[in-house]
């Protein structure tokens, strides 16, 4: 991770969401924090602060842009975006990177951070010329995992301080970011404190437990039978997702308290866009679900349950 204030600026972003979305600002100095709109605050108190962790080949700015509809459905929340430390430049062709959401305004060619990742597939270091790359979601050797986890923790701590909070109220994560979010929640539950020590809810879209045994053990608290994570959680999968099928997302959901966990399967009810993430041979990524219809209701229900627990 580059030091704050270096050439890679805007790695952490803050967005206040009420009836509309406020412009994103780089959360690198106290003056950069945008004021939360009055309509973004719940009637009973302050806005809920949400840590956002993007997926592979995205970055903080790309994730912000692609979650606009989802964030608008979560009224009463203020969103803070961390950014992965590892470059994913060249992981896929330029066209496929665009499909994954890492092109355009968030690309390095436009002055942005370019595609990023919380870890890489270690198998690719020994890849022969012309051989297909292993996707991080399928890797049994997560290269850079610990660096990614520590970077997320540092970014989150800085963002929480920028927000004037000791801890975030919740976390919104996508794909690869869901594993990092779960590891941070597990660390907090084990008494390690940190930026998610006071978290009450988690929205995990397309999440999975890494296939690397050492990484998976961190999510499971050393591989033992640790207590389920006591946060209200919403687990989202795609009915036609071939890269991370429901069974893999279910394995992640099992780490959360079943009494406060809920599930939403995109494409199963005809609600919203059909979500199809193809098998590893192609690089087409899933869309971020829109915050409409039944999914919007699921998000609102999660926030209401979390507010009742606070």
Q: What descriptors fit this protein?
A:
disordered N terminus; eight-stranded mixed β-sheet; alpha/beta; two-stranded antiparallel sheet; 310 residues; 8 helices; globular; 28% helix
Structural commentary:
The chain is α/β, with parallel strands linked by helices and 310 residues long. Helix content is 28%, strand content 16%. It contains eight helices and twelve strands. The strands form three sheets. It has an eight-stranded mixed β-sheet, sandwiched between helices. It is globular. The N terminus is likely disordered. InterPro entries: AB_hydrolase_fold (IPR029058), FSH-like_dom (IPR005645), LovG (IPR050593). Pfam families: FSH1 (PF03959). Keywords: Hydrolase. This is Serine hydrolase domain-containing protein. It comes from Prorocentrum cordatum.
N to C succession of SSEs: EEEHHEEHEEEHEHEHEHEH
Number of strands: 12
Task: Assign the structural class, choosing from mainly alpha, mainly beta, alpha/beta, alpha+beta, or little secondary structure.
Answer: alpha/beta
Strand order of the largest sheet: 2-1-4-3-9-10-11-12
Taken as a percent bin, the fraction of beta residues is: 15-25%
Principal-axes geometry comes out as globular
Number of helices: 8
Give the biggest beta sheet: 8 strands, mixed
Mean pLDDT: 78
Poorly predicted runs of 5 or more residues:
1-10, 16-43, 99-106, 270-285
Helix % is: 25-40%
Radius of gyration: 18 Å
InterPro entries: AB_hydrolase_fold (IPR029058), FSH-like_dom (IPR005645), LovG (IPR050593)
Region (Disordered): 91-146
Protein name: Serine hydrolase domain-containing protein
Pfam families: FSH1 (PF03959)
